[in-house]
């Protein structure tokens, strides 16, 4: 994992779960921000294996926390030097 990693939630949508009567499905769209292009492969891994493992583990924890089924979409973006830019830090919620 890169040390300069930030996560922002773009959207959370709650709706009835089509697979469970009376259940809820929570769709979460998140961005994983790194500072350099060279850090993207660290998160993606060969064939997307690392990002898939990250998503699976995070989804399981969220399902426990929320008490609902979760669909988690993760995307990796490069946000150059975000740690040194007050505007970028503010946009990320720091």
From TrEMBL:
Coiled-coil region(s): none
| Keyword Nucleus annotated | no
- Which UniProt keywords are present, listed alphabetically? RNA-binding
**Keyword presence, RNA-binding:** yes
InterPro entries documented for this protein: GTPase_Era-like, KH_dom-like_a/b, KH_dom_type_2, KH_sf_prok-type
Per UniProt, residues of the KH type-2 domain are 2-82
**What Pfam families is this protein classified in?**
KH_2
Protein name (database record): KH domain-containing protein
Q: Specify the species.
A: Blastococcus brunescens
